[in-house]
Amino acid sequence: MSEIVIRAARLEDADAVISIDQASFSQPWLPATVHSAIEKAAHGDYIALVAEQDGAICGFVVAWTVREEGEIATIAVREVARGQGIGRRLLEAALNECKRRGATDIFLEVRPGNEIARRLYESCGFRVAGVRPKYYRDGDDAVIMRNEELRIEN
Predict the structure, then answer these.
(1) Cα–Cα dist 27/41, whole Å
(2) What's the whole-model pTM score?
(3) Cβ–Cβ contacts within 10 Å for residue 22, how many?
(4) Could you list the pLDDT tens digit for every one of the 154 residues in the chain?
(5) 14, containing H or E segment
(6) Residue 16's closest CA among 66, 52, 43, 54?
């Protein structure tokens, strides 16, 4: 297995990110949204990271923070690269950056039936915090998960 490099996303990575997003989700982000997220990350407003293997983008994550709260907005790994720990490395890198920026609470939403993602999130300290009814455009609910390991109680 070749080395996986996690690095900041660049605009030239957008097509690969869009391709992975479209192949991974029934309701992917619009290409303009991907471009905007990468641009905002370049200015420090968002976090946009990619995983690169053998010179090719094989995964990505987008997150952001607002004061003490962070959100993992989206994360995906190219199907042929799944099962190698790339998703975990991307998630951990995003969590570390959120924490570095002062986040003590980090949230995400996930489809109830996405067991693989839910297991990954749980293994990284996320726990179910609630449900957003009819969150997705197709009417599916979203499970809200919160990272308990970063939580700082007063």
Answers:
(1) 22
(2) 0.92
(3) 14
(4) 579 999 999 999 999 999 999 999 988 999 999 999 999 999 999 999 999 999 999 999 999 999 999 999 999 999 999 999 999 999 999 999 999 999 999 999 999 999 999 999 999 999 999 999 999 988 999 999 999 766 544 3
(5) helix 14-24
(6) 52
| Both tokens assigned to 109 | 């939403």
User: Can you read off the two tokens belonging to residue 68?
Assistant: 């003490």
Residue 73 has phi, psi (to 5 degrees) of -80, -40
Dihedral angle of Cα 108, 127, 106, 78, to the nearest 10 degrees? -50
Whole-Å CA distances, 99 to 18, 37, 52, 62, 72 = 27, 19, 23, 14, 12
16 in Cβ contact with 53 (< 8 Å): no
Domains of the chain are: 4-147 (3.40.630.30)
